[in-house]
């Protein structure tokens, strides 16, 4: 069993507590249509950005990809999340998603909450029947606060979230 650092365990515990207690009044949940929960996980990782010129030739941070580990309720890593966006379970099953809906984070500097549709791209296993992924309870992950001054430079922002997988 992999033991997480104390700080990470506390962050993940906070995400799970929010998931159990519920969202604040007025929050707009993003629920998939006609689907059953397969698995709910706590994620800890980074959102990766690169410094790029926009149409007005001004440098700014542009989102590139996520990199996170998703943990079950016992704190055991079960899924890796990366570019695509994609999720790969320890058994080799893998899904790729596309955004269907989003709503702002309930925390300052949090990445948006998302509903993604998915398709399987790996072997049969834990994720092969997943049709939707929901990202909620996001904290952190917004573009870096450091100035973007060198084209193609990269930066990252730590984030935590709850990822729920539906079939």
Automatic annotation (TrEMBL):
InterPro entries assigned: DUF3455
Superkingdom of origin: Bacteria
Keyword tags: Signal
Signal peptide: 1-27
Family matches, as Pfam families: DUF3455
Name of the protein in question: DUF3455 domain-containing protein
Organism (species): Paraburkholderia aspalathi
Organismal lineage: Bacteria, Pseudomonadati, Pseudomonadota, Betaproteobacteria, Burkholderiales
């Amino acid at each position: 069993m992999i033991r997480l650092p104390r700080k990470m365990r506390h962050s993940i515990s906070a995400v799970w507590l929010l998931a159990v207690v519920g969202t604040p009044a007025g929050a707009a949940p993003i629920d998939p249509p006609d689907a059953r929960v397969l698995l709910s996980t706590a994620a800890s990782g980074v959102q990766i950005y690169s410094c790029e010129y926009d149409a007005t030739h001004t440098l700014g941070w542009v989102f590139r990809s996520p990199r996170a580990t998703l943990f079950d309720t016992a704190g055991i890593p079960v899924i890796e999340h990366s570019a695509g966006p994609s999720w790969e379970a320890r058994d080799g099953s893998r899904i790729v998603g596309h955004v269907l809906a989003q709503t702002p984070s309930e925390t300052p500097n949090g990445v948006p909450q998302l509903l993604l549709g998915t398709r399987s791209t790996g072997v049969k296993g834990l994720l092969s029947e997943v049709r939707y992924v929901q990202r909620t309870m996001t904290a952190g992950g917004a573009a870096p606060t450091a100035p973007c001054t060198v084209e193609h430079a990269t930066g990252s922002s730590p984030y935590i979230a709850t990822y729920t997988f539906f079939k």
